[in-house]
Predict the 3D structure of the following.
Amino acid sequence: MAKIFLKIKGEATMKNSCCRFCNNLIQHNFADLGMLPITNDYLSQDELNQSEKFYPIRVNVCEKCFLVQLEDIESREYLFSDGNYSYFSSYSDSWLKHVKAYSDMIVEKLELNQNSQILEIASNDGYLLQYFQEKQIPVLGVEPAGNVAKVAEEKGIPVIVKFFGVETAKEIVAQGKQADLVLGNNVLAHVPDLNDFVAGMKFVLKPSGILTMEFPHLLQLIKHNQFDTIYDEHFSYFSFLAVEKIFATHGLTLFDVEEIPTHGGSIRIYGKHKNVTNPIVSDRINQLKQKEILAGLDNIETYLKFGEKVKETKRKLLIFLIEAKAAGKAIAAYGAAAKGNTLLNYCGIRTDFIDYVVDRSPHKQGLFLPGSHIPILSPDKIFETKPDYLLILPWNLKDEVMEQMAKIREWGGKFVVPIPEAQVYP
């Protein structure tokens, strides 16, 4: 999806581009977050005095297929495979609990065993495949970030260090590893070439195989104003109405769907080859489609209203922070998350408001957040400095964070959750 810039009255103006799925000319904006840095480009001390790249984070919506999509700003190689990718899935206890439950459920549901083959796309650090491996079911991961894949390999999980698409799928099939189960958690949004990606899944899936994909639900993004989930790595934002069309175009039928609470509200889709009779299509498919239609996700006007909600949330968070600092309060943040970097940079929040951020991942500690340059420290720092407020940037994990950091209540500390708008929890 190429961008073309024109010079009009001395300013750069973007010419309309085409939908990454249906190639329709896009003319409608969903949200414009201005110029932001790459959300996972954490900085070392030596890099603080160097210039940073900032990119326009502008999200549009296709009037034909209703796919919400980010304009291309950087190559997938730069974002995911330079050897320094910083997201490791295994540092969230609630996420590990979620995927463990999934592995137990799907093994029983599909009657998977030692003769089955499981393929996970974007297998990260082996956070999920380890649970299938414990059951002695053959697994294979595909992960483009070599430094992250290495952690999985150290657990004994085989990984192909490549991006997934038709060519990678052909390599896997040539090795005799066509899959009974193809799965992907929070990867579909990260794919710039959706058609190549979904075509690859069809190619690698056995004739009787099943695929499952989990991704944040656009309905929840709009309903709960989750604009901070918009950032450079997320090329697309999916409703079920849109994703069903994408898979159907490539001969894959979505036969079931579940609404799940992860990441602020996600959906898990189940797919099969179009010409396969079983499993039959669940009633939940039509129920969710009707729910989306009632919410207006088949009406372009619904999408055009979202930008104002984003601005209002920004204003309310800044009012809270300004008043807290004027009252002499100390504020720290929890979670050096990508969504947090979107929020902080869009709102212009730096060390004038936030003293530091803590994170459990040792891969981030000692570094600085991109753009805002807020230092990343160990969670132990909270108990040393005893801030008045702890701003939870990964708000989708607020219950887990509040439990971990419950001790702050001993000195009267309070939690702040920024989305859908700033709320204080004692």
About this structure: The longest strand covers residues 205-216. The CA atoms of residues 336 and 368 lie 9 Å apart. Residues 4-70 form one domain.
